[in-house]
Design goal:
heterodimer; A: alpha+beta; Immunoglobulin-like; 2 domains; four-stranded mixed sheet; 9 strands; B: mainly alpha; three-stranded antiparallel sheet; two-stranded antiparallel ribbon; 22 helices
């Protein structure tokens, strides 16, 4: 009986969580111009957030040496040296987190020079969290059933 | 009903790979492992040379950095450990010098080993030393993965350490209790889909120790695989190969027992993943801490190498002394205290809800093994993020290993080419969910072992399942969200 109530509570929790995740509404698309500064071995801002459908223009500036900017998933690339900017324009039609990484060898930590582009809403993350919750719930239900 | 892993693979299912033609003769050969070690030694010699003369400060254009930290490390986590247990240990060239000195030769069997052959101190016969050595090594991750000379120093330290300890302590004591890479390989090998065990335990039980061996004072346990014979050495890893109730943790997969067994009774089995984690024997705090530390270190490595925060990279890269000390302090506190502390709270809840008479420490230790599948998957998720983005540098450095302007294979000008990086988050999510499924399944089985009856087991399982799920969600957010 005690187990039954607990399982019911867990089910309600999972359902409420999934409901809130699925109800997350995307905002209306708009044009955005974002400036990213590169320096050894990071970007400023470290994370940029846009909404799905936004037309994004990235103005890319280097403050020290030759740096690059490659966006995983979108496969877009630009580079900059001090005094010469780079630029990328694209429509953020894919959602989720995309790693932006330096594409020009710039020093010891170059392979780990990273920033993130986050395109909301992140359905991929919602989906994966939901799957984790389903696994959790299934394991509980299976355990209770198996033990009976 | 037979117990199954993930409800699919029966726990006791085994397939002896040596039943395939030629496999057994290859594994029994002394030449094959020797040649593999020689090949690896040649490769590691290039790595060591590149560490000194490679001369390129940017790690991604150095052979040593790329082959050790991008290829070897990733292969270890993605292929060797999950599929073949500690197979790397059997082909690792770093302790080979120590072993050859002990044996005073390469191929000939000579059971009287050179050196003092002392027993390893009893207090250190666990993973604690390796835990701290590995943690210490991670303090230098900012240098190791970017500065070739740091990789050279680490590899040379391992070689010299193994040579010195091999002349003082018996057999592979260095590998068993000191090598920084050994501990996590041992722990994660519990998941491996292969194992070395005896084919028929009855044969080993009835294996009579020879009269001569008895005269030499051998007790009934000292079968040929334990004490060695003219065909092979006593188990270099100090294991009792015929013991069926052992885990992969300390088996170096050297196949020496295949050579010594007079009954040809050893098997190299394919098995379901994670079966060793269900074995309710010899679980300890040292291994528990190894599980916490490995998961915690995976999180830190991700933040440093695949995270966007410049200050963390500066800390790890020792841009300032204060930053470096902050890195060491935060890194150590989280991995040694905070993360195990959080798990302790959930173990306490499990203990309280399950109302078991078992000590809390036992519940804590037992359930810590549920972190092994999730931990390995976190490392796999980390590794795919590294190899798919940076793998193309390997094609460049293989043509010009010392940065001397060579173009041996015509690929020296191969440009940086990220490969399928858009798919990486999906691979990471898939891996982590598989890790969660395995962890929950193992947790469920450990709960049944730990608690006396059904109700206790079910109640005791809830907090642990919640911890595993929340940790997985955190990892998925960290890696992909």
């Amino acid at each position: 009986m005690k187990n039954g109530k607990l399982i019911l509570l867990i089910i309600i929790f999972v359902l409420l969580t999934s409901l809130s995740l699925t109800l997350a509404q995307p905002e209306a698309p708009r044009e955005r111009e974002i400036t990213i500064e590169a320096y050894k071995f990071a970007y400023n801002p470290e994370i940029i957030e846009v909404n799905q459908g936004d037309k994004v223009t990235i103005r890319f500036i280097s403050t020290d040496v030759h740096h690059g900017l490659y966006i995983d998933g979108y496969e877009l690339k630009t580079d900059a040296i001090p005094g010469h900017e780079g630029e990328i324009t694209f429509v953020a039609n894919k959602t989720g987190k995309f790693t932006m990484r330096c594409s020009v060898t710039c020093g010891a930590f170059h392979p780990y020079m990273i920033s993130y582009l986050k395109v909301k809403p992140d359905y991929r993350l919602f989906g994966s969290i939901l799957l984790a919750l389903i696994l959790f719930l299934s394991s509980i239900v299976l355990m209770v059933r198996k033990e009976r | 009903m037979k117990d199954k892993i993930l409800g699919i693979f029966p726990l006791d299912w085994r397939y002896d790979i040596t039943s395939l033609p030629y496999v057994r003769s290859v594994l029994k050969s002394r030449w094959v492992p020797f040649l593999i070690i020689v090949f690896n030694l040649f490769f590691f010699t290039i790595i060591l040379m590149a560490g000194v003369v490679g001369g390129v400060s940017a790690g991604n254009y150095n052979f040593a950095i790329m082959f050790v930290w991008i290829l070897w490390w990733v292969m270890l986590m993605l292929v060797f450990v999950p599929f073949f247990s500690r197979i790397w240990c059997s082909t690792c060239p770093l302790p080979a010098f120590g072993e050859w000195i002990q044996r005073l030769g390469f191929l000939k069997v000579r059971n009287k080993l050179f050196g003092l052959n002392r027993k390893w101190p009893k207090q250190l016969k666990n993973m604690w030393l390796m835990n701290f050595l590995f943690l210490g090594t991670t303090y230098t991750t900012g240098f190791l993965t970017t500065r070739p000379i740091a990789t050279f120093i680490l590899l040379m330290a391992i070689i010299l350490g193994s040579v010195v300890l091999s002349t003082v302590f018996e057999r592979r004591s260095f590998c068993l209790y000191c090598c920084p890479v050994s501990g996590f390989q041992g722990l994660y090998s519990n998941i491996a889909m292969t194992e070395i065990r005896c084919k028929d335990p009855e044969v080993c039980r009835n294996h009579n120790v020879s009269t001569r061996a008895k005269a030499l004072g051998c007790d009934y346990q000292q079968r040929d695989c334990v004490r060695g014979n003219e065909n092979g050495y006593a188990c270099p890893w100090l294991e009792v190969p015929f013991n069926q109730n052992r885990r992969n943790t300390y088996c170096g997969m050297c196949f020496e027992c295949f050579k010594t067994c007079p009954y040809d009774n050893m098997a190299f089995n394919l098995r379901p993943p994670a079966t060793d984690l269900v074995l309710d024997k010899k679980r300890g705090l040292d291994e528990a801490w190894k599980a916490f530390m490995m998961l915690g270190i995976a999180i830190f490595f991700f933040l440093i190498m695949q995270g966007p925060f410049g200050f963390l990279k500066d800390w790890a890269n020792a841009k300032t002394l204060a930053g470096y000390l902050s890195y060491i302090s935060v890194h150590s506190t989280f991995n040694l205290l905070i993360f195990p502390g959080i798990f302790f709270v959930f173990s306490y809840a499990s203990h309280a809800l399950g109302r078991t008479e078992l000590p809390l420490k036992r519940v804590f230790i037992n359930f810590s093994y549920t972190l092994v599948p999730l931990g390995l998957m976190a490392w796999i998720a980390f590794s795919v993020g590294i190899i798919f983005a940076n793998g193309s540098y390997l094609i460049h450095v293989i043509s010009d290993p010392f940065g001397w302007g060579w173009n041996l294979l015509g690929t020296a000008n191969f440009p940086w080419t990220p490969f399928m990086t858009g798919m990486v988050p999906y691979m990471q999510i898939g891996g982590l969910l598989l890790g969660l499924a395995l962890s929950l399944d193992i947790g469920f089985k450990i709960a049944r072992q730990t608690f006396k009856n059904r109700d206790e087991a079910v109640m005791g399982f809830y907090p642990i399942a919640a911890f595993l799920t929340v940790t997985t969600m955190f990892l998925m957010w960290l890696f992909t969200g």
